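To fix ideas, we quote verbatim one protein's residues and fold tokens.
>
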Amino acid sequence: QVQLVESGGGLVQPGGSLRLSCAASGINFSIYNMGWFRQAPGKQRDLVAQIGFGGDTNYADSVKGRFTISRDNAKNTVYLQMNSLKPEDTSVYYCNADTFGSNFWGQGTQVTVSS
């Protein structure tokens, strides 16, 4: 059974930081491209950041320079370090695992940026 379990969300003030984690089980983690997406109420789910199985990264323009995605294949975990958070970063953040023929989602974790 495949599971992607996100953690680390919460309430933070503007300018603050959070670190999201996504622990994967039931997959050969090292061959998957991993990503973080976010979805605000009434909006589509958008890519935030991706990290390929080889370690290459890709970011949405809105988070470049503020967010960093990383992975630890030994722990089957992908991280999203979020700095200089803004109110517009408020969303549910979802972890995604993708490879040829397989695509899985986590249940999401809420991030709220508010004073």
